[in-house]
Write a structure and sequence with these properties.
Layout: E1 6-10, H1 14-24, E2 30-34, H2 40-46, E3 51-55, H3 66-78, E4 83-88, H4 93-102, E5 106-109, H5 114-151, H6 160-172, E6 179-182, H7 189-198, E7 207-211, H8 217-225, H9 242-246, E8 250-254, H10 261-273, E9 275-276, E10 285-286, E11 290-295, H11 299-304, H12 310-316, E12 319-322, H13 333-347, E13 354-355, H14 357-365, H15 371-385, E14 390-391, H16 404-409, H17 414-428, H18 433-440, H19 444-453
Parallel strand pairs: 1-2, 1-3, 3-4, 4-5, 6-11, 6-12, 7-8, 8-11, 13-14
Antiparallel strand pairs: 9-10
Pfam families: AAA_lid_14, HTH_8, Response_reg, Sigma54_activat
Protein name: Sigma-54 dependent transcriptional regulator
Domain Sigma-54 factor interaction: 155-384
Length: 456
């Protein structure tokens, strides 16, 4: 049983210290004790501990518990992930509640209940491990976000529509208000969500993105709220959910319109109470997240159709940001073309490549049903296929130029036909992934897997 963690016991009762150390010695890799709490801070400088067992009263005749609360707060100032268990000879429920609110992980009385003492301490060791895992994951996520944000050069454009979008972003970013971002597929909703995070007071914390449309119902709770070992067949260890991982930062929930109705209540409860309960767990975990969601669905119509909870919608849409489609901001196309040309010309070593006026005119007149994502693909394809250093209108393959449908219907290649049918279903349903999946006879998670596979 050794190797379970490091324990520091702070109590002015020498006999209790000796008894606890003797009893717990085989259950911990290291146990230190101190009688005088004034030595606590110097002890913290010398050694890191996983669990602290702290007396609540040190002065004779004083039973308020304030001393214990004071020293607990000093420990938490030193290590915010510390697990402190307060111990007292006086069973005071109100004091226990106060201690838990201020940061204690548990509260036990000085009655010699070996099983209670041991189970409480070992649970605290597990909690400490979980806290450190969350801390490590957050640090990794921060590094990933830093690299992503460093490589993102957002093209704001000069159109009035996008100017209005960024006016709203500037106003809402510094608040903690929930934000609903709406817009067609490919308009850059996640980029706007990241911009909100980068301008917020949480910019130095994590930005966690979740594609809700790709989550099956069976994975929904464990992905968002985490799960305990044994909660389901494959749960071989505790798993941290996205809400807990994002705590302190921002949580971006993409494709919010694709959540089944029966799961919307669980999401609403988590957002409303700022608490989650991992799948298979009993104790709630407090989370502090800024919620930003996005969808290409008309949530108000879905509410009218009984497909989306009205209370969840009004919890999410404190501020609504409507991202315009590319056809409604065509004046931004030249700037976007320059941006993507620079990106892919460097990638494919075609730095000398340029687009002539005829190519720009053709792109400016096209409706871009796939929005910025489609424009980016067209630019990349043009850079790869260009025979000369000057790309003209005939070299830009968009719309009917691709003749995709004619080629595919004549082909017996399964992949080509599957890609064509997926594109057709999405176009037919106006980008509603739930309906598109239904038309295709597959579930949403399978559809999202195929979208990634075919880079759609």
């Amino acid at each position: 049983m050794a190797g379970k963690g490091r324990l520091l016991i702070i109590d002015d009762n020498a006999e209790l210290l000796f008894a606890l150390q003797l009893f717990l010695n085989t259950h911990f890799e290291k146990i230190d004790t101190i009688k005088n709490p004034n030595l606590l801070l110097s002890k913290l400088e010398e050694q890191e501990y996983d669990v602290y067992l702290l007396d609540m009263n040190f002065k004779a005749g004083v039973n308020s518990g304030n001393e214990g609360l004071y020293w607990m707060n000093r420990i938490l100032e030193f290590d915010s992930n510390a697990c402190v268990i307060l111990i007292t000879a006086y069973g005071d429920v109100e004091l226990a509640v106060k201690a838990m609110k201020e940061g204690a992980v548990d509260f036990i009385q000085k009655s010699w209940d070996e099983s209670k003492i041991l189970s409480t301490l070992l649970s605290a060791v597990k909690l400490r491990k979980s806290k450190l895992e969350v801390k490590g994951l957050k640090e990794k996520q921060k590094q990933i976000n830093h690299q992503i944000n460093k490589n993102i050069n957002f093209v704001k454009g000069e159109s009035e529509a996008m100017t209005q979008v960024f006016r709203t972003v500037d106003k809402v970013a510094k608040t903690d208000a929930n934000v609903l971002i709406i817009g067609e597929n490919g308009t850059g909703k996640e980029l706007i969500a990241r911009e909100i995070h980068l301008q917020s007071t949480r910019k130095d914390e994590v930005f966690v993105s979740v594609d809700l449309g790709s989550l099956s119902e069976s994975l929904f709770e464990s992905e968002l709220f985490g799960s305990k070992k044994g909660a389901f067949t494959d749960a071989k260890e505790d798993r941290i959910g996205r809400f807990e991982l994002a705590s302190g930062g921002s949580l971006f929930l993409d494709e919010i319109g694709n959540i089944p109705l029966n799961l919307q209540a669980k999401l609403l409860t988590a957002i409303q109470n700022k608490q989650i309960i991992p799948l298979g767990g009993n104790s709630p975990i407090n989370v502090d997240v800024r919620i930003v969601v996005a969808t290409n669905s008309n949530l108000f119509q879905m509410v009218a159709d009984g497909l989306f909870r009205e209370d969840l919608l009004y919890r999410l849409n404190t501020i609504v940001i409507d991202i315009p489609s590319l056809k409604d901001r065509s004046e931004d196309i030249p700037e976007l073309v320059d941006f993507f040309l620079n990106k892919y010309a460097k990638l494919y070593k075609r730095e000398e490549l340029t687009f002539d006026k005829s190519a720009l005119k053709k792109m400016g007149q096209y409706s871009w049903p796939g929005n910025i994502r489609e424009l980016e693909h067209v630019i990349e394809k043009s850079v790869i296929l260009a025979d000369t250093n000057k790309v003209g209108a005939t070299d830009v393959l968009i719309g009917d130029d691709n003749q995709i449908s004619k080629k595919i219907v004549e082909s017996l290649n399964l992949n080509e036909n599957e890609k064509f049918l997926i594109e057709k279903a999405i176009k037919h349903t106006g980008g509603n992934m739930s309906l598109a999946a239904k038309e295709l006879g597959i579930n949403r998670s399978t559809l999202y897997d195929k979208l990634k596979r075919y880079d759609l």
